[in-house]
Design a protein that fits this description.
Elements (H helix, E strand, L loop, with lengths): L1 H13 L9 H10 L5 E8 L11 E4 L2 E2 L3 E8 L2 E11 L2 E8 L12 E4 L8 E5 L2 H6 L6 E7 L3 E8 L5 E7 L16
Antiparallel strand pairs: 1-2, 1-11, 2-4, 3-4, 4-5, 5-6, 6-7, 8-9, 9-10, 10-11
Length: 188
């Protein structure tokens, strides 16, 4: 039953007729802009056990904001390789994953993600995998990412349709933490 609910949610949210407020993407964007320059700690909610993320300190730093691009480095313990890159264009938001090595060079698996098929809602944006992602990572062709934001929480989520793969990180927006150093590939 849970799979049917997930599929229904994705279908509804990805439907071009779903968004009643054509400014919802802008409202979501403005919510993220309010976080700019701040860092927050969070936790892995799903899966409960994960060798790569489990038991490690998780911090996001809304480090760089412009009218069209927001970059959010995501630190997993001492691993500073990940940055979520959100772009705003024509009332649509795109999500890309920028992965770097310690020397700053791009990982061979980087710049994957997708673009919302509509303006979404003010508190949630959904990003189905794009063609570039399908070509780069064929197994990720059925990926759907979504980000939620409200006054107390930011969540980053992944569902690989057709599998049991679910990933969810929850960041506590009620208190800031000290800004971490630069992610790999960035200059201070």
């Amino acid at each position: 039953m849970n799979k049917f609910i997930t599929l229904a949610l994705i279908f509804i949210c990805c439907s071009s007729s779903f968004s009643q407020d054509k400014n919802a993407a802008r409202e979501f964007w403005n919510s993220l802009q309010k976080l700019c320059g701040k860092s927050y700690e969070g936790y892995l909610e799903l899966p409960k056990e994960d060798a790569q993320f489990g038991g490690k300190k998780l911090v996001m730093h809304v480090r760089s904001c412009s009218d069209t691009v927001i970059k959010i480095p995501f630190f997993v313990g001492d691993d500073k390789s990940r940055t979520w890159v959100l772009s705003y264009k024509d009332n649509r938001i795109s999500l890309k994953h920028d992965h770097r090595h310690k020397d700053g060079s791009e990982d061979k698996i980087t710049q994957y993600g997708g673009t919302a098929s509509n303006s979404g809602q003010a508190g949630i944006q959904i990003f189905p995998a794009d063609a570039e992602t399908a070509a780069l990572i064929p197994a990720a062709a059925a990926n759907v990412w979504w980000i939620t934001v409200d006054d107390t929480r930011f969540t980053y989520n992944l569902r690989r349709l057709g599998t049991d793969r679910v990933f969810k990180v929850v960041m506590d927006l009620t208190k800031t933490v000290e800004n971490p150093g630069a992610p790999w590939g960035w200059k201070e």
